[in-house]
Design goal:
globular; eight-stranded mixed beta barrel; 19 helices
């Protein structure tokens, strides 16, 4: 990966020097040739004016002078394009492996060929910048619920041009690459996983009838140490005293014993994979340990692409965003303070969608109008089995205009145009507070009486909306940060269904990420609960 070809480049340089210095007109032919190439370039630029990339703008900044007519310039470009592998992009999309050969052929050809190569090289660079800044894949092609437009091109083309002139192509890429700490951590993790792939693998941990537990002594413990070392916990490896008995190697630790240090390493691994942090190697932990390095590389590539899509929301302050697959909500306040909370999101049957919106208002002590899907699939079967279910759960039957109906007078086999509404109270699944924002899926953030669910590691348990631990505290911060005079303590003691508008709207986004840094700076690998990774990986793999 990222290989250079010094012998071939040396030969190209020698050949070009010979051509330029020993031609029939000596050094003067260089200047004459450059003028001819520039003239050919000016003629060819008229054909690319309608291109979606700013090719003509780039050359206008250069007074239409060619940019890629020396070996060193092309080598610098090739090296920069090859480095995109660490961003999860494919250098082949930008012709990185062909540019030096194409350059050599163009130099042996006419001024028209040299100008055509120059434009091709510029196109490769600008396409790479676009993909770095906004993503290679249009999110709408792989996520049907994506509701945001792609951001405008934001990097400085003038600074790119200066970086090209200085031969500092990595600086040009840095202008477009997301600058967030999270993106850099993902990028570093991908680079490390490429290195792991080159080092080889470790034996797979075999399936067992019983979980592997602290205190156990078995051959499988040796394999467990090897798998953990592969994923970065090298401290769990212990010297084998039987390897060289003649020199009397002694070790204080039996490699076959599941000791306390190994237990701590297992817990660290479980934390990084959203598994129950109990130090026991059950089936889920074993499968995560046995995941091929290549699969983790694919997972990192997919989420680097998602991180590029997220660039606009991460630039906003204040902002609220929900990490769906990570089961977390993050609020960056106007003063820069970060507030995080655990969340419960939709099940694989009722996915929480990707959303970009702005928080507009709060509902205090809400009633709950039961959504049609939940009414049809969950509530109606219970009502048909026991009409008293409605009274026990404080659920009212109402018309579409809000008039209350007598449940005993409704044909529950064919209820027709009615709605079910649960009054505010302890049994209401929305709890005491709802945080609302416009969207087409009727999704919101809300409280819940089922607070025990926040203690689970895997929290894809809702019907699509997002339950937030400590949402009352979030609501108070939203009121305070937008200049509202209301206090949650007094609002909660009031009546039901009270809507409180925020004086200013706050951006909110819900994103799906199966690999992302946690608060400790470790990249977590999360289960792909909605099975979205494969489609995005396939799109990333398709040549441009």
């Amino acid at each position: 990966m990222n290989e250079r070809h010094p012998i071939r480049r040396w030969a190209i340089g020698i050949a070009l020097c010979a051509t330029l210095t020993h031609g029939p007109f000596g050094i003067a032919s260089v200047h004459a040739g450059s003028a001819s190439v520039q003239q050919a370039l000016s003629q060819q630029l008229t054909a690319v004016k309608a291109h979606s990339l700013p090719i003509t703008d780039f050359y206008q900044l250069r007074a239409e002078k060619p940019a890629w007519q020396t070996v060193s310039a092309v080598e610098s470009l090739v090296d920069a394009l090859n480095s995109l592998e660490n961003d999860g992009l494919m250098p082949a999309d930008y012709h990185a492996e062909m540019l030096l050969d194409d350059f050599q052929r163009s130099q042996a050809g006419s001024e028209i060929a040299q100008a055509a190569f120059d434009i091709k090289a510029t196109q490769s660079l600008l396409l790479a910048l676009d993909h770095l800044e906004r993503g290679k894949v249009n999110p709408r092609d792989v996520e049907s619920d994506w509701d945001a437009s792609l951001p405008e091109r934001g990097y400085s083309l003038l600074r790119v041009m200066h970086a090209v002139e200085d031969g500092e192509l990595e600086n040009a890429l840095a202008l477009a690459r997301p600058s967030s700490h999270e993106y850099q951590q993902l990028r570093n993790a991908l680079k490390q996983h490429y290195q792991l792939a080159n080092l080889g693998s470790a034996p797979y941990l075999p399936a067992r009838d019983a979980s592997l537990r602290p205190g156990d002594e078995a051959d499988d413990v040796v394999v467990l140490r090897q798998r953990l070392a592969l994923w970065g916990d090298a401290d769990v490896m212990v010297a084998d005293s039987n390897a060289y008995p003649m020199i009397g190697v002694a070790t204080a630790t039996n490699r076959q014993v599941f000791d306390t240090s190994l237990e701590a390493a297992v817990k660290r691994f479980q934390r990084r994979h959203l598994l129950q942090e109990d130090g026991v190697v059950g089936e889920q932990t074993r499968l995560a340990l046995n995941t091929p390095v290549a699969s983790r590389i694919d997972q990192l590539r997919v989420n680097l692409e998602r991180a590029r899509w997220m660039r606009s929301i991460h630039a906003a302050e204040p902002r609220v965003w929900v990490d769906i697959a990570g089961y977390r909500m993050h609020y960056v306040r106007p003063n820069g303070q970060h507030w995080d909370a655990r969340v419960v999101v939709g099940t694989p049957r009722r996915e929480t969608p990707t959303i970009h919106s702005t928080i507009s208002h709060l509902t205090i002590n809400p009633s709950w109008t039961i959504p049609p899907t939940i009414m049809r699939e969950d509530v109606l079967p219970r009502v048909r089995a026991d009409i008293d279910y409605l009274a026990r759960e404080n659920i009212q039957a109402i018309t579409l205009s809000g008039e209350q109906l007598n449940p005993d007078e409704i044909d529950w086999q064919r209820p027709g145009g009615i709605m079910l509404r649960q009054t505010a109270g302890a049994r209401n699944p929305l709890g005491r507070v709802v945080v609302r924002f416009p969207n087409n899926d009727m999704i919101y953030l809300h409280d819940t009486p089922a607070r025990g669910l926040f203690q689970r590691e895997q929290r894809a348990l809702s019907s699509g909306c997002v339950r937030v631990e400590g949402v009352t505290e979030l609501a108070q911060m939203l009121l305070q940060d937008t200049g509202s005079h209301y206090q949650m303590s007094s609002l909660l003691s009031g009546g039901s269904d009270r809507h409180i508008n925020l004086p200013q709207r706050i951006p909110v986004a819900l994103y799906y990420l199966t690999a992302w840094p946690n608060a400790q700076g470790e990249v977590e690998f999360r289960p792909d609960i909605y099975r979205r990774d494969a489609a995005l990986l396939s799109a990333l793999q398709r040549p441009v």
